[in-house]
Amino acid sequence: MMKRFCALVICLLLTGCSLWPWSADEETTTAIPTIGVISALSERITLAQVNSVGWEKSSYQFPLEDWQIDATASSEAERLLRKRGYDVRPVRYDRKAFSANALGGPVARGGLLDRKRPALAPVIRSAVQPNDLDLYLVLVEASVPLGALDPHGVALLRLGGEPTAVALYHAFLIDGHTGETVEDIHAEPLGNGWYQLARVDGPYAEMHKSVWPKPITAWTASQRQDFQAKIEDLLHPSLRKTLDQLDLDRR
Predict the structure, then answer these.
(1) What is the CATH number of domain 32-245?
(2) Strands (DSSP E) along 123-208, which ranges?
(3) Considering Cα of 193, then 199, then 204, then 205, what sign does the dihedral take?
(4) Stretch 46-55: mean pLDDT, rounded?
């Protein structure tokens, strides 16, 4: 009798375990999306004096040389993505394949008369390793209309008064499996509410007039260092705002 009772108890326990809703066999885990960051913000620095209606009075271009603008943008974007729970993977890529020249020009904000968005999937397939992550955040050079001037990338503008540093870029979130653009957005000005008018339709920061070179071709090392520091400082809040607007928490 005791043996039968023990057998019955064991059967009931086994049945209960199999029906337990939190059984380890039925646990499901959500895979953490892998993502890589690609940055190609600018190939050069543009200095331009602009009058009150946006006409360019004079301009000059300098090579970026050993500036680490893309490294700054990538590392900050990767840090923000990790905070959001993404599995950020290092990627190697041919930066020139994502330059404005390779993509048909800097990306405009968008509109009926603007050029189509570049097709980034084939570029990722051919110029990025690894090329099979779940997602890619691609930051590329952008342009904004400013009267008769169309500045793009990294630039120092003199808009009648104080010099203005700008870092104009467009962000694409690309599905690494289908190649489709999940979302894309033009980087916005910082700290502008609905009642404020931005001087530039993109990330910008005013600087002291001592940064502006006289003549425009005679930029000193200290002036360049001050400008580089301002661009790097500008990218941190700008990338945070851009990623917020991409709604990366929705997965």
Answers:
(1) 3.30.160
(2) 128-129, 135-141, 154-159, 163-167, 169-175, 181-186, 204-206
(3) negative
(4) 74
Question: Which has the closest alpha carbon to 158: 228, 55, 41?
Answer: 55
Query: How far apart are alpha carbons 247 and 245 in whole angstroms?
Result: 5
Predicted confidence band of residue 112 (pLDDT cuts 50, 70, 90):
low
Domain boundary assignment for the chain: 32-245
β-pairing, 44-50 vs 154-159, is parallel
pTM of the model: 0.83
Residues 202, 238: Cα–Cα separation, whole Å: 9
Q: Is 227 left (phi over 0), alpha (psi -120 to 50) or beta?
A: alpha
CA angle, 214 then 154 then 224, to 5°: 40
Instruction: Report how far apart the first and last C-alpha atoms of the chain are (Å, whole number).
Output: 58
Q: For residue 106, report the phi and psi dihedrals to the nearest 5 degrees.
A: -65, 150
**CA dist., res. 27 & res. 31, Å (int):** 13
For the four alpha carbons of 124, 127, 132 and 137, in that order, the dihedral sign comes to negative
How far apart CA 230 and CA 167 sit, in angstroms, is 10
| CA nearest neighbour of 173 among 184, 164, 188 | 184
